[in-house]
Write a structure and sequence with these properties.
Layout: H1 2-23, H2 43-61, E1 63-67, E2 70-74, H3 79-99, H4 122-131, H5 133-155, H6 159-180, E3 187-189, E4 195-197
Antiparallel strand pairs: 1-2, 3-4
Protein backbone atom coordinates (compact mmCIF):
# COMPACT_ATOMS: atom_id res chain seq x y z
CA UNK A 1 0.00 0.00 0.00
CA UNK A 2 2.78 2.43 0.91
CA UNK A 3 4.64 1.59 -2.32
CA UNK A 4 1.54 2.33 -4.39
CA UNK A 5 1.10 5.67 -2.58
CA UNK A 6 4.75 6.53 -3.24
CA UNK A 7 4.31 5.85 -6.98
CA UNK A 8 1.27 8.13 -7.10
CA UNK A 9 3.24 10.89 -5.39
CA UNK A 10 6.12 10.54 -7.88
CA UNK A 11 3.71 10.66 -10.84
CA UNK A 12 1.92 13.68 -9.43
CA UNK A 13 5.20 15.51 -8.88
CA UNK A 14 6.40 14.73 -12.41
CA UNK A 15 3.09 15.99 -13.84
CA UNK A 16 3.44 19.26 -11.97
CA UNK A 17 6.98 19.74 -13.31
CA UNK A 18 5.87 19.10 -16.91
CA UNK A 19 2.95 21.50 -16.53
CA UNK A 20 5.20 24.18 -15.10
CA UNK A 21 7.72 23.75 -17.92
CA UNK A 22 5.01 24.00 -20.58
CA UNK A 23 3.44 27.09 -19.06
CA UNK A 24 6.71 29.02 -18.59
CA UNK A 25 7.42 31.71 -21.22
CA UNK A 26 9.95 30.91 -23.95
CA UNK A 27 13.50 32.09 -23.28
CA UNK A 28 14.32 35.35 -25.07
CA UNK A 29 16.66 35.05 -28.06
CA UNK A 30 20.31 35.74 -27.29
CA UNK A 31 21.31 39.35 -27.63
CA UNK A 32 23.09 40.21 -30.87
CA UNK A 33 26.78 40.68 -30.19
CA UNK A 34 29.03 43.15 -31.90
CA UNK A 35 31.10 41.88 -34.82
CA UNK A 36 34.43 40.42 -33.70
CA UNK A 37 36.11 41.91 -36.77
CA UNK A 38 38.05 45.17 -36.54
CA UNK A 39 37.90 46.66 -40.03
CA UNK A 40 40.78 49.12 -40.40
CA UNK A 41 42.13 49.06 -43.97
CA UNK A 42 40.10 50.43 -46.85
CA UNK A 43 39.09 48.47 -49.94
CA UNK A 44 41.84 50.33 -51.80
CA UNK A 45 44.37 49.37 -49.09
CA UNK A 46 43.51 45.68 -49.41
CA UNK A 47 43.83 45.89 -53.20
CA UNK A 48 47.14 47.79 -53.09
CA UNK A 49 48.70 45.78 -50.26
CA UNK A 50 47.45 42.25 -50.87
CA UNK A 51 45.48 41.58 -54.06
CA UNK A 52 47.61 43.45 -56.63
CA UNK A 53 51.09 42.38 -55.42
CA UNK A 54 49.99 38.78 -54.92
CA UNK A 55 48.41 38.53 -58.36
CA UNK A 56 51.45 40.22 -59.95
CA UNK A 57 53.78 37.73 -58.22
CA UNK A 58 51.77 34.79 -59.53
CA UNK A 59 51.62 36.18 -63.08
CA UNK A 60 55.35 36.92 -63.14
CA UNK A 61 56.33 33.55 -61.69
CA UNK A 62 55.64 31.80 -65.01
CA UNK A 63 56.64 33.81 -68.07
CA UNK A 64 58.71 33.81 -71.22
CA UNK A 65 61.12 36.75 -71.26
CA UNK A 66 62.71 37.61 -74.61
CA UNK A 67 65.68 40.02 -74.66
CA UNK A 68 68.70 40.63 -76.88
CA UNK A 69 70.58 38.19 -74.68
CA UNK A 70 68.12 35.42 -75.44
CA UNK A 71 64.95 33.83 -74.13
CA UNK A 72 64.35 33.09 -70.46
CA UNK A 73 61.67 30.63 -69.42
CA UNK A 74 60.71 31.83 -65.98
CA UNK A 75 59.02 29.30 -63.67
CA UNK A 76 59.33 28.17 -60.06
CA UNK A 77 62.08 25.56 -59.79
CA UNK A 78 63.37 25.33 -56.23
CA UNK A 79 61.48 24.58 -53.02
CA UNK A 80 61.96 28.22 -52.04
CA UNK A 81 60.46 29.37 -55.38
CA UNK A 82 57.36 27.24 -54.81
CA UNK A 83 57.08 28.42 -51.21
CA UNK A 84 57.04 32.06 -52.33
CA UNK A 85 54.39 31.58 -55.00
CA UNK A 86 52.31 29.60 -52.50
CA UNK A 87 52.42 32.50 -50.07
CA UNK A 88 51.20 34.83 -52.80
CA UNK A 89 48.33 32.47 -53.68
CA UNK A 90 47.21 32.11 -50.06
CA UNK A 91 47.35 35.89 -49.56
CA UNK A 92 45.26 36.45 -52.69
CA UNK A 93 42.69 33.84 -51.69
CA UNK A 94 42.19 35.20 -48.19
CA UNK A 95 42.18 38.83 -49.36
CA UNK A 96 38.94 38.08 -51.21
CA UNK A 97 37.25 37.48 -47.84
CA UNK A 98 38.48 40.85 -46.60
CA UNK A 99 36.94 42.58 -49.62
CA UNK A 100 33.40 41.51 -48.70
CA UNK A 101 33.51 42.29 -44.95
CA UNK A 102 30.80 44.65 -43.72
CA UNK A 103 31.93 48.13 -42.80
CA UNK A 104 34.94 48.35 -45.10
CA UNK A 105 35.30 51.79 -46.67
CA UNK A 106 36.32 52.10 -50.32
CA UNK A 107 38.99 54.72 -49.59
CA UNK A 108 40.07 57.15 -46.90
CA UNK A 109 37.90 60.28 -46.48
CA UNK A 110 38.83 62.82 -49.14
CA UNK A 111 40.92 60.33 -51.15
CA UNK A 112 40.50 60.77 -54.90
CA UNK A 113 40.98 58.56 -57.94
CA UNK A 114 44.54 58.57 -59.23
CA UNK A 115 43.25 58.85 -62.81
CA UNK A 116 39.92 60.73 -62.87
CA UNK A 117 37.95 60.00 -66.00
CA UNK A 118 39.65 56.63 -66.39
CA UNK A 119 38.80 55.32 -62.92
CA UNK A 120 35.57 55.78 -61.00
CA UNK A 121 35.76 57.92 -57.88
CA UNK A 122 35.60 56.20 -54.47
CA UNK A 123 32.13 57.69 -54.00
CA UNK A 124 30.90 56.24 -57.31
CA UNK A 125 32.41 52.84 -56.47
CA UNK A 126 30.60 52.90 -53.11
CA UNK A 127 27.28 53.64 -54.83
CA UNK A 128 27.74 50.73 -57.24
CA UNK A 129 28.59 48.40 -54.34
CA UNK A 130 25.63 49.54 -52.27
CA UNK A 131 23.21 49.23 -55.19
CA UNK A 132 24.19 45.61 -55.84
CA UNK A 133 26.00 43.99 -52.90
CA UNK A 134 25.36 40.46 -54.18
CA UNK A 135 27.51 41.05 -57.26
CA UNK A 136 30.48 42.11 -55.14
CA UNK A 137 30.28 38.78 -53.32
CA UNK A 138 29.95 36.86 -56.61
CA UNK A 139 32.99 38.59 -58.12
CA UNK A 140 35.07 38.19 -54.96
CA UNK A 141 34.22 34.49 -54.91
CA UNK A 142 35.28 34.18 -58.56
CA UNK A 143 38.68 35.64 -57.67
CA UNK A 144 38.85 33.35 -54.65
CA UNK A 145 38.19 30.30 -56.84
CA UNK A 146 40.82 31.44 -59.35
CA UNK A 147 43.30 31.71 -56.49
CA UNK A 148 42.38 28.21 -55.30
CA UNK A 149 43.10 26.95 -58.82
CA UNK A 150 46.54 28.55 -58.64
CA UNK A 151 47.14 27.05 -55.19
CA UNK A 152 46.29 23.56 -56.48
CA UNK A 153 48.77 24.01 -59.35
CA UNK A 154 51.44 25.19 -56.91
CA UNK A 155 50.91 22.25 -54.57
CA UNK A 156 51.24 19.95 -57.58
CA UNK A 157 54.36 21.90 -58.67
CA UNK A 158 52.81 22.26 -62.11
CA UNK A 159 54.04 25.48 -63.73
CA UNK A 160 51.84 25.08 -66.82
CA UNK A 161 48.71 24.75 -64.67
CA UNK A 162 49.87 27.78 -62.69
CA UNK A 163 50.10 29.74 -65.94
CA UNK A 164 46.54 28.68 -66.83
CA UNK A 165 45.37 29.72 -63.38
CA UNK A 166 47.03 33.10 -63.92
CA UNK A 167 44.75 33.69 -66.91
CA UNK A 168 41.73 32.79 -64.78
CA UNK A 169 42.88 35.26 -62.14
CA UNK A 170 43.29 37.94 -64.82
CA UNK A 171 39.73 37.39 -66.07
CA UNK A 172 38.36 37.55 -62.51
CA UNK A 173 40.23 40.81 -61.88
CA UNK A 174 39.07 42.39 -65.12
CA UNK A 175 35.43 41.44 -64.54
CA UNK A 176 35.58 43.15 -61.16
CA UNK A 177 37.28 46.23 -62.65
CA UNK A 178 34.55 46.45 -65.28
CA UNK A 179 31.95 46.67 -62.54
CA UNK A 180 33.71 48.86 -59.99
CA UNK A 181 36.68 50.67 -61.48
CA UNK A 182 36.23 51.69 -65.11
CA UNK A 183 33.59 54.27 -66.00
CA UNK A 184 30.88 52.52 -68.08
CA UNK A 185 31.80 54.37 -71.29
CA UNK A 186 35.53 53.59 -70.99
CA UNK A 187 35.40 49.87 -71.63
CA UNK A 188 34.11 47.30 -74.03
CA UNK A 189 33.86 43.54 -73.81
CA UNK A 190 36.04 41.55 -76.20
CA UNK A 191 34.88 37.99 -75.72
CA UNK A 192 33.68 36.16 -72.66
CA UNK A 193 35.22 37.49 -69.48
CA UNK A 194 37.68 39.73 -71.32
CA UNK A 195 37.56 43.47 -70.77
CA UNK A 196 39.80 46.13 -72.26
CA UNK A 197 39.77 49.92 -72.36
CA UNK A 198 38.74 51.56 -75.59
Amino acid sequence: MRLRTFHWLVLAGASLLVAAACSSPAAPPPAKTASPFLVTATFKDVMDSMVDPSADYLWESVATIVTKAGTEERRPRTEDDWKKVRRAAVTLIEATNLLVMDGRQVAKPGEKSENPGIELSPEAIRRVMDDDPATLITLAHALHDAGVKALAAIDAKNADALSDAGETIDNACENCHLKYWYPPDAVKIEGAGSVRKK
